[in-house]
Predict the 3D structure of the following.
Amino acid sequence: MAVASPCINICQMDATSGLCRGCFRTLDEIATWAGASDETRLAVLAEVEQRRVAHDPWGDAADSFCK
């Protein structure tokens, strides 16, 4: 089974970090996701989790966009 995208449909790039505010991926990671192997996708997801914790330690950044 293919590794699912971390996209949560909050697609806004942060100019300072260069990361999507919704999924914490770079533009390059977003653009290459469809053609990436499961191994590459899992590596990206590991990076995404580290970025999410570093940028949003309380886990509520996505919630702030929905209010």
User: Anything to note?
Assistant: DSSP finds three helices and no strands in the chain.
